[in-house]
Write a structure and sequence with these properties.
Blueprint lengths: L9 E3 L8 H19 L18 H13 L4 H8 L9 H11 L6 H21 L8 E4 L3 E4 H24 L9 H17 L7 E7 L4 E6 L3 E8 H8 L5 H5 L3 E4 L1 H8 L7
Parallel strand pairs: 1-5, 4-6
Antiparallel strand pairs: 2-3, 4-5, 6-7
Amino acid sequence: MPTSPPKSTTIDAAQIPYPSADEAHRLLQVAFDRLIKLLENLKEGEWHLPTACTAWDVRQIVAHQAGGYASGTGYSEMFRQYLTPPRKGELPEDAVNRRQVGERADATPAQLIAELRQVGPTAMQKWAYQFRLVKPIAIPHPVGGRLSMRHLMWVIHSRDTWMHRLDICRATDRPFEQTAEHDGRIAALVMRDVAMQLQGKLGGRGLLFDLSGVAGGRFRVGEGEPAATLQMDILDFNVWASGRFSYNEAHSRFTLSGGVAWAESILKQLLILY
């Protein structure tokens, strides 16, 4: 399992190692366990609070999570969900998410937690070690470029659960449990995707992301000495990279130095799949 380097070390984001099946399972398990722990401690009124996912309140986020883990229980349920036709202007995953939430519109918090507990272990095991027929398949994606099913199962699912736990913690004003080992690895894999997305857009320059916090670190994207440096809290960065903050909101939370105009032209394009 990759170890976390000292936070003072500058990491080449493009060289961050990809997870193995075993590590993917560990990331999923910790993300899932921390989500369940949070949900079991929510008060009744907190389930209806609005979140940074503006279309969903806390209960609807959990409905999406229950549906997401249900999709990992077998090929039939996966294809039933994934073949949901998008509406005009809707991304494919938005159609799937809409179905997941809609099918659980009447589910109580207790029922959603029970469903997660039922389907979660099977989904995590199958995402990590099974579904071999579809894992090599990659499809064009407007955010993720070419998105493979392996990347979805080994990276995006744990990231999605991690990010939605943050959504719920911020909506309910609860502390976000973090460790450098788990949350730092989730964040590092986000930075790996940042490097993949921005390659070819930097014109041979480098961009340094100096991200503070338990899960943070210093990440270089691109080649050569950084032409600009962005300093920001790691959790705020992920809120922004996922599209939950507008660029203007993100701008109020970061410091940018060096080639500011050049960096802004790059950073305004930033959007990562969660």
